[in-house]
Amino acid sequence: MISKPIEHQFEFWTHLGNVGGYIHQYDGYTSLLPLTGEWPSKIYNLQNANIAQLKTNILECDLPNSIALDAEDKLNLNLEKQGFTKKSVVEGMSLKVKSNMTFKESSNITEVVDQIGIQCFANIASEAFGYNIDSASIIGLLKNDRTQLYLRKYKDQFVSCGILFLDIKGDSGLHMIGVNKKHRGLGLGKEMTQHLLFNALKNQSENIHLVASKFGAPIYKNYGFLNKGYLNSYTL
């Protein structure tokens, strides 16, 4: 059974695709393929998919060359047998909300409310994560009641970003927390995390989810997040 943080991550991607108009549902899997930019081009929600046919469609450039799959799913073996290579592994983490929890809201962080902010967010995220994110792929999140996008300004320049997403179960998720390369090591990522957690508590969520790299996971463990599984990423 898929873990809650990874299920939440899949729902976030589905929400992105729905509001952006680039989600495609096939027999056995879901695909996101925005018209421009590299992100969030991916295949996920694999359910008894024909892996051989999936491989053919990717090689013919009909589908994105990126598959996300819960590490406990039996289809991992099928992907490897068909020649897919594991590109990365991220950790699914959850925090059980308690009544005595407190997090710090930052007056330096502002919510994105217009297209200029969306473009700024896309620029920061692209540099922070190392792949091209077109503003058109996230413009649908603007003024959406399930998502809030945030930017942090440092010396009159926006340098960090983050997203808070509320899923259909009422759980909150932290997404795309990033800082541009020139301003790392200043605690701006931690400040954004605290700000998102503060607003997650306002959602009255029972759980807060995220996925983290091996470098980010120890930071989130300090906030009380616990490992609930892993998400593998495959390419040909």
Write a short abstract of this structure.
29% of the residues lie in helices and 31% in strands.
Protein model, in words:
The structure is a single chain. The protein is an alpha+beta fold and 236 residues long. It contains six helices and eleven strands. The strands form two sheets. Strands 4-11-5-10-9-8-7-6 form an eight-stranded mixed beta sheet, with helices on both faces. A hairpin with a 2-residue loop joins β7 and β8. The radius of gyration is 18 Å and the shape is globular. The chain starts with a helix and ends with a strand.
Strand order of the largest sheet: 4-11-5-10-9-8-7-6
Rounded average pLDDT: 95
Structural class: alpha+beta
The counted number of beta strands is 11
> So how many helices?
6
Q: In percent, how helical is the residue content?
A: 25-40%
Biggest sheet, open or closed, and with what strands and sense?
Answer: 8 strands, mixed
End-to-end CA span:
26 Å
Strand content: 25-35%
What is the succession of H and E elements? HEEEHEHEEHEEEHEHE
Low-confidence stretches: none
Q: What is the overall shape?
A: globular
Mind telling me the C-alpha Rg?
18 Å
Which descriptors apply to this entry?
236 residues, alpha+beta, 8-stranded mixed β-sheet, 3-stranded antiparallel β-sheet, 6 helices, 31% strand, globular
Helix/strand layout:
Blueprint: H1 4-20, E1 23-26, E2 29-32, E3 42-44, H2 51-59, E4 67-70, H3 75-81, E5 85-96, E6 109-111, H4 115-129, E7 147-154, E8 157-166, E9 172-179, H5 188-202, E10 207-212, H6 217-221, E11 226-235
Parallel strand pairs: 9-10
Antiparallel strand pairs: 1-2, 2-3, 4-11, 5-10, 5-11, 6-7, 7-8, 8-9
